[in-house]
Amino acid sequence: MGLPPSPRPLPPVFLMLLLLLLPSPLPLATGDPLPTESRLMNSCLQARRKCQADPTCSAAYHHLDSCTSNISTPLPSEEPSVPEDCLEAAQQLRNSSLIGCMCHRRMKNQVACLDIYWTVHRARSLDSDLCLKFAMLCTLNDKCDRLRKAYGEACSGPRCQRHVCLKQLLTFFEKATEPHAQGLLLCPCAPTDRGCGERRRNTIAPSCALPPAAPNCLELRRLCFSDPLCRSRLVDFQTHCHPMDILGTCATEQSRCLRAYLGLIGTAMTPNFVSNVNTSVALSCTCRGSGNLQEECEQLEGFFSHNPCLTEAIAAKMRFHSQLFSQDWTDSTFAVMAHQNKNRALRPQSWMPSLFSCTLLLILLLSLW
Question: What does the entry list under GO cellular component (predicted)?
Answer without folding.
Answer: external side of plasma membrane; receptor complex
